[in-house]
Amino acid sequence: MTTRVLDVSRLPSFAFGHRSILWWATMGMILIEGTAFGLLAVSYIYLKWRVPEWPPGFAPPDLVWGTVTTIIILASALPNELARRAAERLDVPRARLWIWVSVIFAIAFCVTRALEFTTLNVWWDSNAYGSIVWFLLGTHTAHVVTDILDTGVLSTMLLIAPIDANRMVDVAENASYYYFVIASWLPIYVLLYLAPRLV
Amino acid sequence: MSLTPVVQLEVTEDHIASESRALSHSWAQPRGVMGFLSEVDHKRIGLRFIITALVFFALGGVLAALMRIQLAVPENQFLGPDLYNQVFTMHGTTMMFLFAVPVFEGLAIYFIPLMVGARTIALPRLAAFGYWMFLAGGVFLYVSFFLNIGPDNGWFSYVPLAGPEFAPGKRSDTWAQLITFTEVASLVGAIVTIVTIFKYRRPGMTLDRMPMFAWAELVTSFMIIFAMPAVMLASTSLILDRLVGTHFFNQAQGGDPILYQHLFWFFGHPEVYLIFLPAQGLMSTLIQTFSSRPIVGYVALVTALVATAFMGFGLWVHHMFAAGLPEIGTSFFTAASMMIAIPSGVQIFCWIATIWSGKVRLEVPMLFALGYFVIFILGGMTGIMVASVPLDLQVHDTYFVVAHLHYVLIGGAVFPLFGALHYWFPKFTGRMPSHRLGLISFWLLFIGFNLTFFPMHQLGLNGMPRRVYTYLPGLGWETLNLAAAAGAALMALGALSIVINAIVSLRRGEMASRNPWNAATLEWSTSSPPPPHNFYPERVIGSRDPLWDDPPDQPIIEGIRSDRREVLVTRLLDAEPDHRYHSPEPNVWPFITAVFTTIMLIGSMYTPWAVVWGSIPPFITLIAWFWPRRTDINDESYPVEKARPQLNEATGPA
To answer: Which of A78, B44, B164, B308 is deepest in the core (most CB within 10 A)?
Structure first.
């Protein structure tokens, strides 16, 4: 007896972008952490409202290293995008190349971030302003460090582990997460560096 | 030419039998101790969540009983003030973080894949990691309690009481770190639920055909994502204030204790809905099945869920009416709080219409659903009362609020939950629960609950404050407290009868068929209990209530490989087939990662350096977790050149 059959055997065995499982998992992480950054920013503004002058009793963070960091992080979007595009073309050599370039950018960025911590002009235990500045910068740095480690592992995999198409999906999604790390930094930069000077 | 043609094919019995055998082999649950720790089967992970959460529910219940014994008579010396503080804090923390949220997460992990017709859950290793973190957090809390470092500042752990100045020692740190454990578990649970619902629905199950429980869990998961970061922030800043000298909540250094309250309740109020909304999904499920007709007002019910979720984020300040906030702000939150009655009312009227127009079967799960109507609606009534500022100021911190919140949470969540556990018992175990014992449990719980909590309304109006370990005779509180203690005893018997029912039925219950209650959702289309791969053969979905309304000749889905754990990924809105995906194999590293993360989190209570050095072992275990093994490799795209012919179909919009 014959029966009606929906034959799905010719569908691809992987997919990129919003069609993949990993994309949705990454978006979930981004929503969670984006919410955390948003609430931190709101806490910063809340604490600002409570005192007549801002920053209370300290000079705002020096502009130099924060700005250099911002430039590097913006520039790192380029190798990140090139890695993503190479991955979506299943071009392993180029994906490998650009993901390593991204790692180098991120390391440079970590160095200037470390210098940034030395020119905040306030300690976390100085007052509530110092606490929230360190917390904001610290939380973002934790994301950067996590992303470097994670990208580093993926880059190493591309050198020594067996590579199937799903690794290329990993590279592409690793790039979308890195965009979040960049995007979340810009409002924090405005809040920490520009707002105390402008408002 | 379509990649997914519908064709006329000969599907023989032999083919079905051999495919079933292959699937059972590919999806086989691993054995032994390593197998236990490597488990990625969503049914087992879900069941572990449920059972663990029920154990914590029992522990939280024992703590509640201790409080009722202490308060049964005035000037009782059964529990001292310090222990009493710990007991009520542990009770609230346990019930909120270790029972109510995880138990619904467990139900979601078990039933969402079954209800949407999938072979497994998305990201199963992440779900396993979530379970181990939840278990570790719960064990950590109770071990701390027995080591006399259990929290004692209430389940909300307000500053300055919980801050460095007034809470020396480790008790508040224990609370703050417990939050981290349970948040990690809830957040990963939310992600796996959302991804499963969005991408693993069986072809034909468009969004508007999704079961109500799946809708409820979807909305809840989004709420978790937006609410949980707030409490994580609150507890992290609290522990930073305590351990490294930050000043977030220190008034003298520009901090503000009210900021803590805002952060906590921005999570804390949605938290109530994280518990309540899944239960609304259960109510719709139970009422549909036992009224033997499709639910009335499907679209209205879904809209009500979404509306409740949105409004749930605009209510938090009603927990802070007594904190002295500007009046204009509090009026807004009063209005918002009263508005929540609208979607709740819509749901209740839809259910009443379903019952009214259906053929009601008074099975035990339906009784629990009816119990909801009485208890939750009373809780909702007092909710409208305390939403108004003057009344709230009068009853704030009294037993009136205790009565209100237990009517809402036990009526709104625990009764539907017990109904659902009775309802799904045959699916979990393959055996029917005892109807007679179920009746006994229901009546003991229903009478016991009202006897315990109804008098508390009066106690509150008579001025009895919450969180006092004893009271003087002659205040007129004795009789009502004694009644509450008697009610608690009945509830304990009710809970015991449920345990007895589970044990007896597991051994001697009647064997359950696939669909013993004649329900309409897909979990009832497979054997009880389901095989490791959940379904075979799978038919395309043709209606909202497939087991009632689908024509018998719906197409069978063929072409998902049976020689490995393969699933069909579909599109978000219309559930059209999109691609095939190799679901992760069992793996022990999520467990090991959870162990090392636990060590790091507990260590960080003692030295901040534990965060630095303690992060290294979980990092290494994460590498091991993600490192591709032979069995993880997608053989259709390895080496990569082999994948090139699929590339056109794998990129761009489907």
So the answer is: B308
